[in-house]
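Q: What does the assembled structure look like for these inputs?
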Amino acid sequence: MSLATKAIKKSPWVYHVNVGACNNCDIEVLELLTPRFDVERLGVVLVGSPRHADALLVSGICTRQAAPRLQELYRSTPKPCVVFAMGACTITRGIFCGGYNAPRTVDEVIREVDPNAIIVYVPGCPPKPEAMILGVAKALAAL
Amino acid sequence: MAMSLSERIKEKLGAAALEIDQPLANRLYVYVPAEQIVAAVRGLYEGLGARFAILTGLESRSGIELLYHFCFDSEGMVVTLKTKVPTAFPEIDSIGPVLSGALWIEREVHDLLGVNFRGHPDMRRLLLSDDWPEGVYPLRRKYKL
Amino acid sequence: MPTESATAAVGLLASGGEAVQEALPASQLGSVGFYLALFAGCAALAAVAGMLSSWIDRKVTALVQARVGPPLFQPLWDLRKLMTKETLIPEGANRLAFVLMPLAALAAVALAATILVGNILWQNGLFRASNGLCGFGMIGDLIVVLYLLAVPSLALVIGASSSNNPFASVGASREMKLMSYELPLLLAVAAALTLASVAERRYARELQVQVDAQVPARSALHSVSGTEGPVAASVPLRFDRLLLMRSSGPDPAEEALGKLGGARVVELAGRIAAELKAAADQCQQWGTKYPPRASEIRQASKAGLVLTKRQQDALERGLRDKLEGAAQDASDQARALQARARSALVDGGLGRLSSELDAVAGSFANLAQGLDAAAKGKPDAESAAKSLEDAARRGAGLAGHLRDMRDAVAGDGARFAAARVAGAPLARAVRWDMPGRLAELLALALCVIVAVMCAQAKLGLVPFDCAEAETEIAGGVLIEYGGPLLAAWKLTRQMLLFLLPVFIGVVFLGGFRFYVPEGSGGASAWQAVVSVIKYVAILVVFVLVRNTNPRVRIDQAMRFFLGPMSVLAVLALLIAVFAHFLLGRVV
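A:
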């Protein structure tokens, strides 16, 4: 496992998942690829299929409808993989905490499938791109 | 001589408008009995050329209130038709025949408040997840989170 | 002329190594171990170069988008990371096809890499047989290379169809339709082959080539590999063989020799060798038959040379050895002369041949002098000395004879050229030379445009990446592939990114020359720089086209390839045939 996670450090391919977000976090993720922040120099590539991904960038409160889909996506991603919970909504459901349509947070949903999942929390509403890069860098360094 | 909007509405709606309230310069509340909602909507939409903005609802102690919001853009006025249906038998005519754009919001109100819109052609679940139990309406007062 | 040494990359490719088998003894073909090592080496080279090309692609893309881009070893880290992930095979997928296809694609590309890299090595002087063609059996056919380069697309279609995923099926059907780019590509290659056969005939028959060879750096255009490239598709090309499916044809060297009267040269060289050997044999005989007389020994001792019996024997033996050595030398030189005459002719034309003959004549003269000195150094055995003198004279005579021969050939050439200029039936060929060359260049320019667009589609780069449209069909053909299998696909793509510019360079632009043997004109270092520039330029064209165009729909792509591109390719073919008639009008 350590060899694999070491290999991910240099080349983390991300797959973006929106499980009920207001799109603010999604826009910030897109900004990461623009010339100002340019995460490609860290080896990050936005891929089109979860099977190509090493990291799932999850944004949103994880609605009841989306929960099984998120679990299916997590299962589809070849291990080892990391889940980045972007934004306050994914960590604690943010201002929608207590709402009728999001009974569980993202990490609860994912830990149902894999209790040992590696989940990284990036707070903010939305988190600034610098915060996201910091989160990614810290996570990769800690792996 | 130009009539004020409330006068025009009173003239158009006639018996359907029980009472007209103007708390702000650009807001009008028209109280309409539930049975005459379609006539009232027709009067505003086809008669006076208003634009249907949205339908909102809430459950109050005396029943489920439904508010139909119409905009008169040229005059900068928002007119709201307020109706009330009893909580035990929440039924009202659908305004779909008049405004096909209102069909989806009626589905939403049905999902969340449990109001039955008579004559709605396609009353399917809109917002709630597929595994949500029938008969449980989240925006009702008795629903506990 | 550098490129005539037939970048034969195309020539060799098209001749398919048959000439090889005819010309070589089996022992020269090498062992199985050698071939395996060669295959592994070429595949590794293609992989490394492919990763480098992929980095160039990403870096140039980043620079175009005002970004920084990934570090140099990023493609390597990507592959390493993919190798460490788990392999997931979707439920309901055809396991065999799913797993086998990426490996099949990789194998095909590795084999194509071996053939193309082997070709480049051959072009730069390795693996040559005595007749100038390939000295080992790894050179493949042009048709084989085209087929191997098409296998990855087919493997992609099959792999995607076996993925049990609707997105993959959509991608597979798009990729199948996209393969319509093969048509203009084949037409363009056919045009290049036509030009090659033109150049071959011109090269073989036009003695103007001799003049060219005398002035190696006639113009920057002509001595640098590449722009003379069009001419060099001067592949001793078997285009007619390709068309008529003839299984064997005349050896190009023989043909050239025959046409130029060079057969005379070789024959003469043989006779010289025989005569030299006879002279040496005779000397040897005399040496043994007439040992030094006692009186001579006394004379020598009086002169201060005291020769014991042992010393006498040694002297005698020494003389014999010297004569034997001279005889061996002579026959070796004669054989070498023959071989060099042939290769000089194939390689560098008459000019090179005459300079070779000059060198040989010089060495014969030296031999003659040596024999002379040997004769003088031996006061006894007068008849031996006389015979050595005879041999020396004969050697000098032979040297003169060789020089005469060279002059005669040169004279022939001059006469031939003069006859052409004077308006003999061949004169038209001379007058139409320039337009012919322009037509050649035009046809090749069209071919290159068509080939670059087709290569863009083969690589799955924008604007033709509808099969693997990331944001449209979630990864398309490769949607279900992950881990080591995806690493195989990525490596295949990267090796193709290395091989396709090489293919285009070899077929249309005269190949990649890094080493130029002396006497062919053109500086080695400049050739190497131009070769690198050629490769990088084609790669950068791919990347820039990729960055300046949006993705097209599959029906637009098909219409593009079967419409404008095919028309351009057919036009190139017609112009090539036209150039053939303009330039090929020789005796």
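The mean pLDDT of chain B is 90.
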